[in-house]
Amino acid sequence: MKNMVDEQPVEIGYLLYSALQDAPNQEASRESLSRIWSLELQWFAPEESASIITHLIDKGWLVNDSDMLSATPSLMLLRPPLGWRPILNSVLSVQDFELGSDSSEPEPESYLAVKTLRPRVSNPEGSNLPPDKAEGSIPHLIEAISSGSGLQTKEVLRRAQRKRRALGPVTLWMALALVAREQGLDMNKIVSAIGPESS
Description:
Blueprint: H1 4-20, E1 27-28, H2 30-40, H3 46-58, E2 62-65, E3 68-71, H4 88-92, H5 109-115, H6 138-149, H7 153-167, H8 172-182, H9 187-194
Antiparallel strand pairs: 1-3, 2-3
Helix pairs in contact: 1-5, 2-3, 6-8, 7-8, 8-9
């Protein structure tokens, strides 16, 4: 039997995909999310949708930037299987979003697909761009910026996401490097945190 905590990233990935995948810049207002889940998909009552949105923001799964909501850049949005429906109590019991796991036990492949940090728009489907080899260094890079600047990891991600929207198709690690530079961090340390695999 799967652990409910292990299934949470997959479930939230499904839930947010349903509302954000086709939205401009994969972001939407509270009202739009509530309308999609309540009226279009008829999964929840409007007040339940409002509670879910507040909970996901508080737990770090949704980022609120200038009243527009988007999934944390670390979460891959996954198309839910046919017939899938979210369970209200399960969504409202979701734990804080975590950047990584300290567990040494192997995790289900579907969980790792969501949990591994990947820029969602750095190499869109159908693009001729090479894969972003620095993706695996992103968790360490976020932690380095957070510890060096004193910003919480959620705030580091929020600022990086805002830069990506402003600059267009840049990778997540590049946006994070710009945040680090803004904070006056030693860029040699930041470059080394990105790792040799990105070269």
